[in-house]
Design goal:
Blueprint lengths: L2 E4 L6 E11 L16 E10 L6 E12 L5 E5 L3 E5 L4 E10 L8 E12 L9 E4 L3 E2 L3
Antiparallel strand pairs: 1-2, 2-3, 3-7, 4-5, 4-6, 4-8, 8-9, 8-10
Amino acid sequence: MMMSTHRPSTQPSVRAVTLIAQEEAQTPLGEPTHPNRPIGFASIFLIIENPVDDECRLIVRSLDVIDSETGRLLLHQARPQIIPLMPLENATIDIHLTNHMGYGDARTVKAIAHYQVMPNGTDTPLPTTTIESPIVTVTK
């Protein structure tokens, strides 16, 4: 299931986060059985906009997928990603996360993105902003 949350903005921002979460515990037909293959998959789509007439950089600091009922961390990426944005640009960035444990007993999950905007001409990013996806059901 895919859902998103929208946030209007007058500065560069992640306007929405969309999450698709699935688990493939069974080996797909035609694939050899491998004990260390990924079985938990998350596709996180960041809808980004730069509504100002100037370039900037958006730094995705981390992405988390958590169990929406318990808050337990299921997938995590802490490697910063720098996304250059041109003036008045809208973009969708997709990031794929996997794990070897799946989602366990989690039925519903949500994604949390932590990011900073670095305006053009400065090396100092603005404070970190957090945005969450709506809660989605894990497809098993």
